[in-house]
What we know:
It is a single chain. The chain is mostly helical. It has three domains: about 1-80; about 80-100 and about 110-125, no CATH class; about 130-185. About 80% of the residues lie in helices and about 0% in strands. The chain contains seven helices and no strands. The chain has helices at about 5-80, 80-100, 110-115, 120-125, 130-165, 170-185, 185-190. It is flat and about 140 Å long.
Amino acid sequence: MEPQQMMEFLLAMQAKADARYEEAKINQAKADADRKAMQERTDANMKTSHKELLAKLEDDRQANMKAWRGEMSAMTDKWGSDSHMETMACQVMEARRDEEPSSVDRKPEVAQKVEFPVVDAEVMPVREPKRKRRRDRHLAEERRRQKTKDSRREIREPQKKLTVAHRRTTRRLEVAQKTQIDQKVSRRATVR
C-alpha cells in the first residue's frame, strides 16, 4: 500500500470510530434519561403505596380502638361504676359501726378501747388504671432498692472500723502458730 492510500484508510477508520463514539454517547444519554424517568416513577409509586399503607394502618388502628372502647364500656357496665363501689365500701363501714356490741363489749373500759378501723374503705377494691398501679409498684421497688443500697453502705463502713479496732487472732491462726513453735528446732541441737 502506498502512503497516500494508507492515510485515506486511516482517516476513514478514524471517521467510523468518531461516528461510533457519537452514537454510543447518544445511546448513553438516552439510557440515562430512561433510567432517571424509571427512578422517578418508582419513587412516585413508593410514595403513593406508602401513603396508602399508612392510611390503611390508621384505619385498622381506629377500628381496633372503637372495638376496644366498646368492649371496655360493656365491661364497665357489667362491673358497675366506681362511685357504686365506693358507696358499697362506705355502707359496709357504716354497717360495722352500727352493729350492737356484745355483752363483753358493754363494759365501760372495753367500750372506750373499741376502735373502728379507718382502712375498711380501702378493702373494697376501687378500680384504678393499671398504669398507675404499675407505676406505684415500680416506685415502691425503686425505694426499696435505694433503701437497701443506703443501708448496705451504712453497715459496711462501721464494720471496717470494728475489724481494725478488734484485732484478735482467730483460733485457726493460734493453732498454726502453736504448731510452728512446737516444731521449731532448738538452738542447742544445731550448735556443736
